């Protein structure tokens, strides 16, 4: 039953690398045939087939999701269609081919992914490199609405078609049919696409790729998955040729290997008719090729059958933080996706949640590890396993491993308490209840992706109502004894394998790993999380409730603004458009402006430790108890000009959610453990920045763009070591108490109760005055322009580099119209840079251009172009970017290029504005700067009515060569020229 909640996915444990693709290729389709399904009136559309035995549910007793209709064409192609009106007008199409990297033969490594690229380059109805422009003309945004991905087990093509009409759907299905059935896999196309794939491989390579490959090699040892990277090898990609690639396509791109899923705002009868029209004549040529055997883990000979340790590996990567991973692996087996099977999955999840809560409690208490997590995974229909990921506090990995295994040993030795199980059951129940409440808001793309995932893992889908019903009927089975039995099963398998990743050679070897893993550990009887209950009703009031606020209409929908009289203002919008969800945001303070170079290290510590420090007498474990079984959250972020708490909650939990946020401002708490943990995590994270050009950019770009301003750079280990708990309190105490507060409450809540909750929480805060003038005066100074790039170095692979060019623009709300027009110009720039560097030169996989216009600062805006490429291509990047800038200033855009940018923008705005979150984000800060309300009204014309002449004038004003700042990130020891 897909998607029952699978929790705690660990990216570092991924045994495979799915390779998403930013698609290439497609032109206007030829004239549509007359009398097509798209031109038939609704009354003439053929009826949908009866749903007596839908193919997805054969052998399963999971209740059918009746929103889906399933069918099979005579040639064996399976399909599923569904009407879904979120967002309005959009139709999402997914085509899954049951062939991925694991279906490749020797010498074909990477062919599945290469073919994913090639079908977009040219096909029966598409000219050379025309897919991007074609779907842009139809309103689809490149990279998000048009995409594809390859994994070890499948290749999936994805189109989210906005403003879909019968005609544009017909055209899209026609294009997709040509891509699947008749791509042009010529020698010329292969030679054109191979460099793009190699650029993608290069940009994804380095230390992180070696860790993924090493993990996969160890955990799937002896199976095809072990040494089968989805991206392939340089040799196989460069060695691909017309006959070999065509052979792969003919072997696997067949109707019986295909599933088409369509979900969106259209008549399901039309969807089914178009599938029949364009894919019904897909021929199955030659004999069917059965899928290869993916193998199974092998039990090592001898040893302890209860703990069959089979292998260990140490990876020394100087730019990676320490991680210890061990897995208890089992063969993947075909299963019937029944209710009983899903009840077992629920018990598995409960067992993991109990163990993980215990591990987190131990880490919070200052244990030997920063974090540790248990996660059950099924990888690529090859390996099932229980994987444990540990981040040691320092180089003492043995102590960290021992302590984690002791907590796990306790979970295997004794059942959890009734209270522990009840707590996790309540947590899951809230999740499933929320899914039922918001089922009408599920985007069509999401439900289409869920069904594709179900097909891939050979499971079914169920409606949120069915999932909740199965869960609630199963609760009596969720006894401590049953959870204990499943915990023991999670740590039973065919083989146990361990991997240690370290930046320091000599810390460990395979023998020491083997010895540590085979050591007998005693159960940690103190690891049970205390069953004490804490309720908001037990907490003191924050003060006297404030007076009834002054309320005024904003003139925007039903949004109201109110003044609570103490420096706190609120925006509220009770609306039934977001059933079961209330979003709360609290904006306060000055953000990064509040820090000085001396206090800047405390910004990152606050980002990580402020919330865990708690409030009043309430620590982080207490916060967890308060939120247990409730729909509440506690996110915190720092922006240029403000701090923000945010959460998704619901009407019945809104008052307590507001208390949680207000208490942090009124009664901050200063715990040593969260600060120490944040320091250790930040130091460990810093190690990885040097691993690749992308890491160096993540660390240094924002700071260097802003003249080396240390407020915008992560602190170094030496800076972090100089921080203290007392310093943390001295910096953050005044920041929490300073400046006006804005509270936003949007969603499905009772207006009167919401206002009363505001009075009792934020209305009860002491008066808050304006921010200090010296804080408001702190500005951003951009780096001086230069024809010669700043040069930084990374410690990754010698074939990796990055280049950046940036032009200063503006900031603030007053000229927000220009900021929106600059986003349009940036998209034009991005299209041209993509065509020049990727499509023509194969130099970069995904060059980017973005406009940043800070609304909360008086200056600091930029247009920035960047690309990752080979070191010797850095000068070409600068030359290309300079030429594009000159061309944009020299002459206005033509109608077609304007259409390719404007139509996707129109559709993005149309889709976004169907949600309350859109309006919430657009008017943030308007209680302090009322012009933001008026500026929202001009948003649509600002983006969609800009002329070619205006864009040319903006290019002439801003994209001036003498104003550009440049940066190159080169491999350490490299001597590549970086000039213009």
Automatic annotation (TrEMBL):
Domain Peptidase M16 C-terminal span(s) in chain numbering: 244-426, 743-903
Q: Please provide an example of a Pfam family that matches this protein in its UniProt record.
A: Peptidase_M16_C
Keyword match Hydrolase: yes
* Superkingdom of source: Bacteria
InterPro entries annotated for this entry?
Metalloenz_LuxS/M16, Pept_M16_N, Peptidase_M16, Peptidase_M16_C
- Give the record's keywords alphabetically: Hydrolase, Metalloprotease, Protease, Signal, Zinc
Q: What is this protein called?
A: Insulinase family protein
Q: Native species of this protein?
A: Novosphingobium ovatum
Tell me where in this chain the Peptidase M16 N-terminal domain is found: 88-201
**Gene3D superfamilies, per the entry:** Metalloenzyme, LuxS/M16 peptidase-like (3.30.830.10)
Family, per entry: Belongs to the peptidase M16 family.
| Annotated signal peptide | 1-25
Q: Does the keyword Protein transport apply?
A: no
Q: Which residues form a coiled coil?
A: none
